[in-house]
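Re: your question from the hallway

Yes, I did run it. Sequences:
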Amino acid sequence: MSADIRYVNGALQVEGVALADIATQVGTPFYAYSAATIQRRFAAFHAALADLDALICFALKANGNQAVLSLLAQAGAGAEVVSEGELRRALAAGIAPEKIVFSGVGKSAGEVAFALEQGILCLNVESLSELQMISDIATRLGVTARLSVRINPDVDPKTHAKLTTGKSGTKFGIAWDQALDFFATARALPNISLTGIDTHIGSQITNLPAFDAAFARLVELVHALRAAGHVVDHMDLGGGLGVAYQGDSEGEETVRLAQYATIFHKHFTDLDCRMILEPGRFIVANAGVFVTRVLHLKPTPEKTYVVVDGAMNDLIRPTMYDAHHAVLPLCEEATAPITADIVGPVCEPGDFLAKGRKVACAQGDLLALMGAGAYGAVLSSTYNARPLVPEVLVHGADFDVVRPRQSIEALIAQDRVPAWLRADGK
Ligand code: LLP
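Structure:
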């Protein structure tokens, strides 16, 4: 739990605002974020690597709300984007193009052209086919594309299988031993400048030796590339640093950040490269909560279900990654705790938010799922025709709705019924 999200006189608060008061105003479910936590965590990450000329490019996929991005832009963050949509979001939040890197295994020609027209810092290339495409587009536009190539170092970060990206056998990057050929090919192509390497070995990594191993592989590669006459002047080490989803997360994360920074310094202090990092989760996860209301308590012969109004479409991490989010009542010690599965209204057995938890709650009570600031709202959908839920940004004693609840009318109005099917025939 972040220092800004805690009980005050028995009521769970984000900064100076009781979550129950937000629920009264915006209804449930909703997401709430602490601006102070986001600022503090970005500052801590930045400070840990300050002496390395490191550019911290926040990974928008973790939380793309324009208010959150504006906050990070003000703090000096760059952005890591993986689509034209994310690139436009970053620009709209005031993040300068020269602080934006574009990753992803499948950029379209349109996306590449847009990124080049904007003059972003770097495109992180993932295949020879993409390299050729970027060269063609840059030539047509009369610009030089700044590139790095994503290396798959074949290191197992020992995180969830669906969060593992730096092992061979995944779709990401090119094999370590193909990098020399890749650079040689790039040299022969017009309008590109390939002078960097990047990686991202996975997400929610708490096994820090995995970073140590991956970084060592990359440094070895930089030396090999330079020995072959190539320029390598920047390195992008991706994101991936894990957070604590239980207990005193901020204390534990401070220690982990210090360990990560030590590994980082060990490898990169004397490399004479500009360093780029792409943290997402570490900056925002524990700045956010997801608040939901208990609809029913449903005892069955096997177990008790707490049926809440939030569901897998709002917060898919438990269903998708077996993720653990701590569950806290908004009103401390309101009722005696029961052990239960917390499930939503969606018609799928995989729709659950927590399993086998001891939680104090009664019908009508409000519950908070902690650590929901990263990969929460961004991964939501309207499955079962459930409108997207609001996002709220708390700032001291105030809060703002930074994404209003989608209306059911707006949801229905997105679809178009062809004239021949319409009852009125018009
Ligand atoms: N850079 C690249 C190229 C990435 O693919 C990612 C995350 C990041 C940076 C940021 O990683 P972070 O610091 O947040 O770990 N939906 C999953 C997480 C998927 C991460 C995908 N890539 C979840 O809810 O756990």
